[in-house]
Amino acid sequence: MAAMGRVLAFGLIVMASCISGEEESDQGAGNVTKPYVGPAVEGLHWAETFDGDVWSRWSHSGAEKYNGRFRVQARTQEALVGDLGLAVPEEARHYGAAAAFAPLEGREGVPFVVQFEVRFQEGLTCGGAYLKLFDSAGRAAGEFQDSTPFVIMFGPDRCGGTDKVHFILQHRNPKTGKLEEKHCKDPPSVPHDQLSHLYRLVIMPDNSFEIHVDGERKTSGSLLTSMEPPVNPPREIDDPSD
User: Fold this and answer.
1) Residues of the signal sequence (predicted)?
2) pLDDT tens profile 41-65
3) 211: domain CATH number?
């Protein structure tokens, strides 16, 4: 995962809950392997490779809801031998883990980018794997829970009639002071396979945004007009009694 650009001081929590199912798989078809080499991360504000002592940087949520515990391990079938990630070992559980990173300071003209890779290697019937960015507000990493206010929620989710890559903002209404959720109106769907996919959110200085899957732009819009409900409310609201 990597983040850079203009926001606040954040903690990050990765959440997952999965029930596996049968899906199309290309595993084993001409699979070529090579040794994992840690990526170059210079210039990024924060990056996680899951090398070394992962649990000195991450903490599981202490909330009762998150009754699963991630494992740090390789994929069931490796292309980069030795490349590690957070694995969900048991079905039908909720998983939550958080890490803190240094405050982000805005740089004029520089976009905010957050991306991470997900693989539903046993298939997916019902579940999600998304991250939330929080203003840590003095909390320890393990104190985050489902109800903790967040700034951005992003990542794949599929269950029942839901099949989308979430992009949700929590925006504080300047008049009421209350937090309001703003959902992307046109989120892309989640790939239906058992392969690794890279999910990327880009927020531009002009308040436009893009959602990419595997480097391909799937959705774009404006934070002001492409979220539901809109960040900027309409100037006039129809009065059916008028």
Assistant:
1) 1-21
2) 999 999 999 999 999 999 999 999 9
3) 2.60.120.200
Question: How many H helices and E strands in the chain?
Answer: 0, 18
pTM: 0.87
CB atoms within 10 A of CB 46: 17
| Residue 219: both structure tokens together | 């959705």
Residues of the chain with pLDDT under 50: 1-10
Integer Cα distance of 195 and 25 in angstroms: 7
Q: Which residues pair with 112 in a beta bridge?
A: 203
Residue 154 contacts by C-beta under 8 Å, 6 or more apart in sequence?
A: 114, 130, 131, 165, 166, 167, 168, 199, 201
Cis omega (within 30 of 0) on the bond before 187?
Answer: no
Q: Would you put residue 119 in left (φ > 0), alpha (ψ -120 to 50) or beta?
A: beta
Q: What is the CA radius of gyration of the chain?
A: 19
Q: Domain range for residue 178?
A: 2-19+42-228
In the structure encoding, which two tokens stand for residue 173, read together? 């209404």
